[in-house]
Write a structure and sequence with these properties.
It is built from nine helices and 19 strands. With 303 residues, it is α+β, with helices and mostly antiparallel strands. A hairpin with a 5-residue loop joins strand 11 and strand 12. The protein is globular, with a radius of gyration of 20 Å. The two termini are 15 Å apart. 44% of the residues are buried.
Length: 303
């Protein structure tokens, strides 16, 4: 396969070659994608996956790249961003959203139709696909409490429907992760509410988020999963790690569960901070911190 062959095969799809992923990640870090594609329909997504399979190219989907670290070596093969597939519709108590739709926009659509149950997601910066993939949650709510099913693309290029049980949602887990599938859309079941009350709750949660989290700086969101019986942020704070910095990546002085880009950080800076935090917390408290953030890509670019 040559670059020319790929571009010629899909002139209707926006495809970039050797594109720095730091232009797309919330951390502003990450090496280049060999091939970066922005399909605008499920059909185009299927065509890209089929092409990749035919040419033995690995496929990576990075969603809105919010709870993600792409290593400095970048990503080999085909990388897909689905943000151009972003339609949201509603019918009675159901909201159906394409994978590339912003989760925040889903909460706005729900509020506009006086539907309650997903206010907790009003400030989560991820996409619908990423939220289902990770079973995103905040302020006592989780995707598993509202999603009733999803359309996914399998690794062998088939579109199938997964119901709630088949999604096998758990703490930051789904069957989509295990089976290397791509979320195409999701259906959320909500309850009838009062639009003004729903908006007030969204505003309250967004105020809490802004007051506690370092939203003014690039970050990958919450870095670590919650250890059983503990809170990751408190363990990090009690270990005296707030303000700890490697290169341009720093443990936030506002919320210890976040690592922020304060000065042109690299992904390697982030990974070094994560490793130091894990080692220090384990030495002090005997608790293993496991990453919630998805870490992908190559350490070193091999071309």
């Amino acid at each position: 396969m040559t670059d020319k062959t790929l571009l010629k095969a899909y002139p209707q799809i926006d495809i970039l070659l050797n594109e720095p992923l730091s232009h797309y990640t919330n951390t502003l870090t990450g090496g280049p994608a060999d091939i970066l594609a922005f399909p605008t329909s499920v059909k185009q997504c299927q065509e890209l996956v089929e092409y990749a399979n035919d040419h033995q190219l690995p496929v990576t989907v990075i969603g809105n790249a919010s709870n993600l670290i792409v290593k400095d070596g970048g990503i080999r093969g085909l990388t897909i961003i689905l943000t151009k597939i972003n339609k949201i519709t509603s019918h009675e108590n159901l909201v159906v959203a394409d994978a590339g739709a912003a989760l925040i926009d889903v909460t706005k659509a729900a509020q506009a139709h006086s539907l309650t149950g997903i206010e907790w997601a009003a400030g989560i910066p991820g996409s619908v696909g990423g939220a289902v993939f990770m079973n995103a949650g905040a302020y006592g709510g989780e995707i598993e409490n509202v999603v009733v099913g999803a359309e996914v693309l399998t690794s062998d290029d088939k579109v199938i429907h997964l119901n709630h049980e088949q999604l096998d949602l758990g703490y930051r887990h789904s069957s989509v992760q295990e089976n290397h599938q791509i979320v195409l859309s999701a259906t959320f079941s909500l309850s009838t509410g009062i639009a003004d009350k729903i908006q007030k709750e969204m505003d309250r949660l967004n105020f809490l988020r802004a007051s506690k989290q370092p939203l003014d700086l690039p970050s990958c969101g919450s870095v670590f999963k919650r250890p059983k019986g503990y809170f990751a942020g408190k363990l990090i704070h009690d270990s005296g790690l707030q303000g700890f910095q490697v290169g341009g990546a720093q443990v936030s002085t506002k919320h210890a569960g976040f690592i922020v880009n304060v000065d042109h950080a690299t992904a390697t800076d982030y990974l070094n901070v994560i490793s130091h935090v894990q080692e220090t917390v384990y030495k002090k408290f005997g608790v293993h911190l496991h990453t919630e953030v998805r870490i992908i890509g190559d350490e070193i670019l091999n071309k």
